Amino acid sequence: MPEIKELVKNLASKHGRTRESLIPILQGVIHEERYISDEAMTEIARELDISAAQVYGTATFYSFLDTQPRGKYVIRVCKTISCAMKGKNLLTQEIEDMLKIKVGETTQNKKFSLLETNCLGWCHKGPAMLVNDEAYTDLTSEKVREIINEYMKK
Amino acid sequence: MSYTNLKRVDLIFDQDCNPKEIIKNTFAKNNDQIVNELLESGLKGRGGAGFPTALKWKYTAEQPEPNKYIICNADEGEPGTFKDREILFKVPQKVFGGMVVCAKVIGAKEGFLYLRGEYRFLLPELEAQLAKFHADLKDLKIDFKIKIVMGSGAYICGEESALFESMEGHRGEPRNKPPYPTVSGFRSKPTVINNVETLVYAFMICMHGARKFKELGTADSRGSKVFSISGDTPKAGIYELELGMTVEQFVDDFGDGDTKAVQVGGASGFCVPRKKFKETIIGFEGVPTGGSMMIFNSSRSMYNVLHNYLEFFEEESCGQCTPCRVGCQQLIKGIEAVKKGQKHANYLEHLQKLAQTMKITAKCGLGQSVANSFFSIVENFKEEMIY
After folding, report:
1. Does one domain contain both B334 and B291?
2. Last residue of a domain, one of B297, B328, B360
3. A41-92 pLDDT, tens digit each
């Protein structure tokens, strides 16, 4: 995995090789790879001179630091009460039907992952979702179809 | 129904001010003057806990340690809260302004803004605004720098000591207190950590003086507050309102005419049922809130609401202390069993005892506050829990 090695090295040079750099480095790996592989964790541990268990322990604490393979576009639908009241379940269903996957799964072509997440901070404009870092609000079935179709073309 | 519009206030989002000018004028005052003005204003933290802001600054300033920090807590994660996002989007210069004033008072050279991962889309604009702010400081010959640190999707990191852990590159597990952040915070140095909104109010008090702020609110809850309003309301959104209103006044203005309950303060806050609307004041003398106001009408099942909150806590509990880790799981299992008829209705009393134990023994505010929504929903909507 020479690419991972290169990526981790560059991130460590950018953020520094102290413990405080660990989370920014993990975030950098997520940005490029969408998940943090075992190889990446071992490599980060080596760069920062800490144990791989420390890296693993930190990474697995945070819900946005995925440690299993994800698609190029990670869809996170808000499941907290305000969005749930505004019909979040219908949206999840719509996306499941479109992508032919269930919540927690990734499409075969590794393009999309569908997840549910806690409050995104758009309660007045629910239901809401994130696609990677981008927020989409006031969603309807139609709107969701449009958004997903756009990403399918990318 | 009496229809009264509550008083709208415009301190936070008011664009008619020059942040650079306010910084310049404030830096001409001495630290005691600034702290006394804040103390006089009665400003309390706007994140929910309500600690007097002036005292936080004063205690940190008194520490002899040369390295100190000011941290802006923008890890807004409480269900039903979204005001900090709007503040950072609309008036970032005022947030930075509050931070540099605090830095002057406590003697800090570095500040950090911890932004929740869910708001990463704000980052490019915030960085641009920050560059402008740093240029202004250079003009004013003020030696202070702010760095933005990103969170990664953990509600618990809004707890101040968990936030320090996260910034130091660790799991976001809260620390034991004392020592408090004013003595030992980020990198074990004296640290002021304030909510986004608190910093803007502090900055506005520097501009307008304490009097204008004190004219608003009540003796225990001075000033105004930004509310995040959602749920069954035709007017969902962000409103700055004077403190001291009752839930009834609030519902008259924001309800849909069929309001059954209002959850004040998010999942960790309190549920106020219709019969208590009149007597309950929104503020530190009644039900405190970090700004989250969720309105439920009579079509909603309060069992579903409670279940949703408990699932939230179960996932967001850091798992470090047993009362919270196991307690959240057992509360969910318990209410499910009662609902399905597998347990007798009086099992709810056992669950309430468990919630009470969590309140006393959990290590941090997360585990301690699960009991707030649990008690206030179970006691007021018992039939909905059982049938």
Report:
1. no
2. B297
3. 999 999 999 999 999 999 999 999 999 999 999 999 999 999 999 999 999 9
What's the ipTM?
A: 0.96
Q: Between chains, do B169 and A133 touch, taking CB under 8 Å as contact?
A: no
Which of B112, B127, B189, B230 best tests the A interface by mutation, with the highest count of A CBs <10 A?
A: B230
Residue B4, domain member (yes or no)? no
- Select the residue of B121, B150, B172 nearest A27 (Cβ to Cβ): B150
Measured in angstroms, the CA of B34 and the nearest CA of chain A are apart by 33
Structure-token pair, residue B30: 């001495």
Domain span at residue B327? Answer: 302-381
In whole angstroms, give the CA distance from residue B124 to residue B126: 6
- The answer as to CATH 3.65.10.10 being correct for domain A73-153 is no
Residue B154 to residue A24, Cβ atoms within 8 A = no
Residue B269 CA: distances (Å) to CA of A27, A95, B73, B113, B306? 32, 33, 19, 25, 12
Residues of B within 8 A of A135 (CB-CB) are: 118, 121
Count how many domains chain B has: 3
3-state secondary structure of B272: strand
Best residue in B152, B156, B235, B262 for a mutation probing chain A (most A CBs within 10 Å): B152
Answer for the pair B332, B311: CB distance below 8 angstroms, yes or no.
yes
pTM of the model: 0.96
Q: DSSP label at B175?
A: P
Sequence ranges of chain A with CATH classification 3.40.30.10: 73-153
